[in-house]
C-alpha cells in the first residue's frame, strides 16, 4: 500500500508524454508560452520545469512542485488542466507523484 501525500503536504508532480512529430514545435511553444504561465498562476503550483528524455519512455517530461493535493481542486486549475488543443494528439501519458522522505540535508 502506498502512502498518498496528505492534503497539505507539498510534493513533486511529474507528467511524461509523447506528441506526434508534426505537432512537436507547436506543442512545445504552447507548453512554454501558455500552459506553464497559466498553471503557475494557479494557487498551489509553485514551480515548473520541462525535460526531454535521454532514454526510454515518453520523450517529454514536466516536473512541478505542488503545495498540496488541494491545488488540483481550485477553480483556476480546473480551467487550465490538460493539454488544451493538443489533448487528442498526446500519447503515452504517464504521471507520478513523489513526496519527500526527509527534510533538507
What's the arrangement of secondary structure elements?
Elements: E1 11-19, H1 24-40, E2 45-52, E3 60-66, H2 75-80, E4 90-98
Antiparallel strand pairs: 1-3, 1-4, 2-3
In short:
The chain has helices at residues 24-40, 75-80; strands at 11-19, 45-52, 60-66, 90-98. The protein has 105 residues and is of the alpha+beta class.
Write a concise keyword list for the protein shown above.
105 residues; single chain; 4-stranded antiparallel β-sheet; globular; alpha+beta; 4 strands; 22% helix
Please tell me what the overall shape is: globular
Helix content: 10-25%
β-strand amount: 25-35%
Q: Between the first and last Cα atoms, what is the distance in angstroms?
A: 27 Å
What class, by secondary structure content?
Answer: alpha+beta
Number of strands: 4
Order of helices and strands: EHEEHE
Radius of gyration: 14 Å
- In terms of quaternary structure, the protein is single chain
Number of helices: 2
Largest sheet: 4 strands, antiparallel
**Adjacency order of strands in the biggest sheet:** 2-3-1-4
Structure notes:
The chain has 105 residues and is of the alpha+beta class. It has 2 helices and 4 strands; from the N terminus they run βαββαβ. It has a 4-stranded antiparallel sheet, with helices on one face. A hairpin with a 7-residue loop joins strand 2 and strand 3 (60-66). The longest helix has 17 residues, at 24-40. It is globular and about 40 Å long. This is DUF4286 family protein.
